[in-house]
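User: I'm writing a tutorial on reading structure tokens. Could you give me a worked example: one chain, its sequence, then its tokens, then a sentence or two explaining what the tokens reveal?
Assistant: Sure. Here is the example chain.
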Amino acid sequence: MPSSAKRGAATRRLDLLAKLQPLLRAPADEERMLRSVASLLAIEIGQYCIADMVDRQGALRRVTIEHADPSRRPRLRVACEDATFEPGGRVARLVASGGSDLVARVTEGARARALTDIRLLEGDRVRSYVAATVPVDGGITAVLTLVVTNGTRRYDDTDRRFLETVAEWTGLGLENAIRREAQARTTTPTVPPASQVMGGEEAKTDVRRSNPLRERVSR
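And here are its predicted structure tokens:
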């Protein structure tokens, strides 16, 4: 029988997924949606959550670094803007391969060798780390990273699988946001040409189109 601690953790994960669903259905652009997801993960799982994305030119960009403590966010914006990515670094590798990554106990060597892109506030050092890629329409659009810097908490395979689920749901939300944006562009009303104006009245035209959206996040 599962322990009370495990049951409590499972309940918290289900609660987080319930909170995630309205964020993924909101009429937001890609960056805003990633920020909302990262903020929720930092608060609910903590301590840090980093969201990186591949922009439309194919370049990596750090969208946000979120922390459970809102007072840290202004300083984290500076760290976010200063982020750099190595061609063979962990984010580039994850984008190329997909999937997830877990380092339960981060050593000094691992910090210096594989996690150089993770620059947080002064004094905070990565002690445990897990990341998962966000798939959109068959490709990788973003990477979500969770980091522990203090305390005894260490991520494990359960955390990895859960983050993979969150990343997959986020990908579905982004797919739907992209399709909503595309539909809005194709259904924008236009002034009818003069040939459709007869007897001082605009000829009636059928501007209805089939709805390409298929909301895939389970209700």
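What the tokens reveal: Residues 4-187 form a domain with the Beta-Lactamase fold (CATH 3.30.450.40). Confidence is low (pLDDT under 50) at residues 197-214.
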